[in-house]
Write a structure and sequence with these properties.
Number of strands: 0
Distance between the termini: 83 Å
Order of helices and strands: HHHHH
Radius of gyration: 31 Å
Low-confidence stretches: 55-68
Shape: flat
Helix content: over 70%
Largest sheet: none
Structural class: mainly alpha
Mean pLDDT: 76
Number of helices: 5
């Protein structure tokens, strides 16, 4: 391979890496925003139910939320589409990087390239898993909210049609509302715990990647590897000497004690 071709090939690889890092950064920010939007959607649904009940006593319009709910639905749909497109783009970039590693003439750097490619693939897999998990949790939560809202609307409809606001119905409504609030708090706590677990897992993967790179660097430079081995041998020797001294002192102390 000529010098010009090598330079062009190297620039192509660097461009692909830049595209991958840019898409990964965008995905990271979008996933955080998507998770917050899904959480706020549930909160706004609860606030709408409360405003709807208040409107019955203040004679306000019960359709004030329609624009807000529609706006949130549009935002969720747009963000979901954007995230799916970013994942498709990142997958395409990873495929191009994989094709590049199989190009004749780059076999001398194949180990380092494959390591970099695998790291980008792991990041893509993590982001894809997180996106599908957040989306699945949101749809499950929305189905639960719709079911509970349907029950509440049936109760309200029954009250309106019968025209009876007895004490028993009020107590049932309050108990139902307490149940919804407790369920929502539990869901929020679980979401926070799962997000923390995902972050810890991601950080552990990054630390493993750094450890692998350090090991690869040590194997690539024999002098550094030899220095590390000498340091380990010296530490082992010092440990043996210290252990021997402690053992001798212990024996002498026991002899002195019993004699």
């Amino acid at each position: 391979m000529s010098t010009t071709n090598m330079a062009t090939s190297s620039n192509y690889w660097e461009d692909l890496r830049k595209q991958a890092r840019q898409l990964e950064n965008e995905l990271d920010l979008k996933l955080v925003s998507f998770s917050k939007l899904c959480t706020s959607y549930s909160s706004s649904s609860s606030n709408w139910d409360q405003r709807k009940r208040d409107s019955r006593s203040t004679h306000e319009s019960p359709f004030l939320r329609s624009d807000s709910g529609s706006t949130q639905d549009k935002m969720l749909l747009a963000m979901t589409t954007e995230l799916e497109q970013l994942l498709v783009n990142l997958t395409s970039v990873n495929d191009k990087m994989a094709e590049y590693t199989n190009t004749p003439g780059v076999s001398s750097h194949n180990a380092a390239l494959m390591h970099t490619l695998q790291r980008h693939r792991d990041i893509l897999q993590d982001y894809t898993h997180e996106f599908h998990k957040t989306k699945s949790n949101f749809f499950s939560l929305r189905e639960r909210e719709d079911l509970l809202g349907s029950v509440h609307r049936d109760i309200e409809s029954y009250k309106s049609s019968s025209g009876v606001n007895n004490r028993k119905t009020e107590l049932l409504l309050k108990e139902h509302e307490h149940f919804r609030n407790s369920d929502r708090l539990i869901d929020n706590a679980i979401s926070i715990a799962m997000a923390t677990k995902e972050n810890i897992t991601f950080q552990r993967g990054m630390l493993k990647s750094i450890q692998t790179r350090v090991t690869t660097l040590a194997n690539r430079f024999p002098a550094i590897n030899s220095l590390i081995q000498r340091i380990n041998l010296r530490k082992r020797r010092d440990s043996l000497i210290l252990g021997g001294v402690i053992g001798v002192c212990t024996i002498l102390l026991l002899l002195y004690t019993f004699h």
